[in-house]
Amino acid sequence: MEKAHLPTTEAAVVAIRDIAAEFELSMSVTDDIGADQTSRRTSAELFTVFDPDGSLPHEAFVELGGSPAVSVRLFPEDDAKITVDGVEFHDVPRDSVPAFLRSVYGGLATTKGRLFPPGQWLIVPLPGDERYRELIVDPNLTPWLARSARR
């Protein structure tokens, strides 16, 4: 499966909306448009909407209903932060977001624990031998994370 290029935040929101429809999930979107509104533009002057290069930055926060609880913050810099049941995946490329969500909702994501060093990880595989792995910091696993445990 070839990864589709998502040139804008809006293109990524449309792709997430398609996945929500495919898996019959509810979805809510909050848009922040302008250099004075986006989270990574804290140094923007007051009432400065455009970046110095003349572009209009667009950031979106998407919440998907269902199990697991997933939220996606899409940044203007072509990356995203995806939170799955409290586990945060930072710096996921925007083009990888649809494949990431398909893996989570398609049942491919697993949790894996180790005795030494102790810890549990959430592992999300993507097509093409790409995978994301994050430490689960809460010792109490949610029902979805516990159900996804690999033995």
Characterise the protein shown here.
With 151 residues, the chain is an alpha+beta fold. It contains three helices and eight strands. The protein has helices at residues 9-22, 97-105, 143-147; strands spanning 27-33, 58-64, 70-74, 79-84, 87-93, 110-114, 119-126, 130-136. A five-stranded antiparallel beta sheet has the order 1-2-3-4-5, with helices on one face. Helix 1 packs parallel to helix 2 (97-105). It is globular, with a radius of gyration of 17 Å. The relative contact order is 0.16.
Distinctive features:
alpha+beta; globular; 151 residues; 3-stranded antiparallel beta sheet
| Main sheet characteristics | 5 strands, antiparallel
According to DSSP, the number of beta strands is 8
Our measurement of the CA-to-CA distance between the termini, rounded to an integer number of angstroms, reads 28 Å
The number of helical segments is: 3
Helicity range? 10-25%
Q: Quote the beta fraction.
A: 25-35%
* Low-confidence regions: none
Which structural class do the helices and strands define?
Answer: alpha+beta
Sketch the topology as an H/E string, one letter per element.
Answer: HEEEEEHEEEH
